[in-house]
Automatic annotation (TrEMBL):
This is Polysaccharide deacetylase. Gene3D superfamilies: Glycoside hydrolase/deacetylase. Residues 1-28 form the signal peptide. InterPro entries: Glyco_hydro/deAcase_b/a-brl (IPR011330), NODB_dom (IPR002509), Polysacc_deacetylase_ArnD (IPR050248). Pfam families: Polysacc_deac_1. Coiled coil: none annotated. It comes from the Bacteria. Keywords: Signal. Residues 43-230 form the NodB homology domain.
Amino acid sequence: MLHIRKTFITALAILLIIPLLLPQSASAASSASKHAGNKASSKIIYLTFDDGPTAHTGQLLDILDQYNAKATFFMLGPQMEKFQKATKRIVADGHGLGLHGVTHVSGKFYKSAYSGLKEMQQANESLNKVAGVKTSLVRTPYGSKPYLKPAYRNVLLGQGGFHLWDWNVDSEDWKYKKDHQKVYNSVMKQIHNVQKSGTTPVVLMHDQEATLKVLPQVLKTLKAEGYQFEVLTKKVQPVNFWNDKR
């Protein structure tokens, strides 16, 4: 009889303890599931702008601010010195910094293995002179293929210590400056295709007046779709046409 009573008391104690444990376990499981879901659903995108700063950079930055979006600017040396206020604001606002050379003339930039390096170094000096900072990120004029041959890359990346960036989404805002809907449709289609392939989109756009007309629509859609706008840094593995990871 005593044995039966002890067994009954033990069973009762277990039944009383189990409900106390269940909510905590369920809560932890729910929290872990929610965290994993957030991680899986986060979509990063890198917006990049070439050829600036320009007289329109201030408006471009205002639009980015409106959507709480960050971007990376690949800038030209003479433009940085001409539009110093815009250059300083790009830095102050926490956007990514990149170099686009000096001349933007293929015959000059790619004249020799060292001509491109000299242009990037000169552009870096302009950035430092205007804003007191330097960067190691570069995007060569018209993209790195086919002009930036192995010997040229070895000089620019190996000796110069730069990191080469191209893109995997071309907005073609440079081509269709008046057909804003065409630019929007094209860029969104490319972004979705790149995202579906499991690759992070790196979008090429330009610091120009025409881009201001389509940028708000692009940002609004991307934000609604849950994209996070991040900046390129030397810690991010480069995306370029040569698959050169230096």
